[in-house]
């Protein structure tokens, strides 16, 4: 595993564009710190400071930071599809196979890289969230601090699932730009299917089925936290209540999609004449 990971990292670090995109991918989560220190002047009457509103209290901070950090995943998605595009355009994929790398090892090297960067990103957001929480939170008891850290696992799985999808599209079309376009096509198709199911049955059934779609299932791992923040400020508003938790069955759905994308990527490579 380490040999394959090291091989892939060498390729990425030798590419100037990949190095820049990886750097940006790891820097962007730190913008959550800026969010915590953001001060909003409300028409000159008073200053609203997010950090003082309790939104960075434990355990809600794990939900808030992982949601915002996951919005930056598109930058490393470009790196993932570029890994495949560059292999085909530079003919390195054929050279690697000639040099003794099996097709299975080739796909695994990409997957190990995805897992590695997802893990690094998760560790970073964990440290950032912990530091912000310890500074702003009114609750620093160990039992409260570690509560809802399942959002970190959901964040990790979400990154792996999304990047595995990008890997599959990269293998499918061999071009970075087209692979990214397929993401938007898939997004549109999911909503078209949702509309058709709603028309055929009803919105409730359609929503339950939609939660099994690739992109939607990844999104559902970490639901938006805004409604939850509103619930803490207006506890008497029952209509604000919703299920915001990171559930094990949602993680399993995304892991199944991840396994399928990696398997399909391998099958494409295995059947393709290089």
From TrEMBL:
Keyword Lipid metabolism attached: no
One GO MF term attached to the UniProt entry: ABC-type transporter activity
Domain of life: Bacteria
GO cellular component, one term: plasma membrane
Signal peptide from the UniProt entry: none
Keywords noted in UniProt: Membrane, Transmembrane, Transmembrane helix
Pfam families named among the record's database cross-references: ABC2_membrane_2 (PF12679)
TM regions (residue ranges): 20-40, 60-84, 111-136, 151-173, 180-201, 251-269
Membrane keyword on record: yes
Protein's UniProt name: ABC-2 family transporter protein
Species for this entry: Algibacter luteus
